[in-house]
Amino acid sequence: MPKGYMISAHRSPADPDKSSAYRKLAKPASEKNGGKYLAGGGRVVAKENGVAERTILIEFESFEAAVAAFDSDDYQAALKVLDGGANRDIRLFEGA
Q1: Nearest 5°: phi and psi at 69?
Q2: Domain holding 62: CATH number?
Q3: What are the φ/ψ torsions at residue 37 (nearest 5 degrees)?
Q4: Which of 3, 51, 75, 83 has the fewest CB atoms in 10 Å of its CB?
Q5: How many domains does the chain contain in total?
Q6: Which residues pair with 80 in a beta bridge?
Q7: Does residue 75 contact residue 16 with C-beta atoms inside 8 Å?
Q8: Residues with Cβ within 8 Å of residue 45, at least 6 apart in sequence
Q9: Are 9 and 86 a contacting pair, CB within 8 Å?
């Protein structure tokens, strides 16, 4: 069965206070829903239309699990705390 993934590619630096509060809730929420953090916080080289900002990759057991994790009450609470403090491109996708 293909895995599911969430990628978060920031378009600009996030508000440090809101981002910190968000991360305290978002990581446990993702992990509670089966998320495994594969990469994040390292160096970025942007190509084509990309932006060299923070990028996070989380793996889930399936595409459906990734969508369910994003839609979960716990993760939605984390997004409320972020409250516009980050300009990100979030994608949920299926992969091998």
Answers
A1: -65, -45
A2: 3.30.70.100
A3: -75, 120
A4: 83
A5: 1
A6: none
A7: no
A8: 52
A9: no
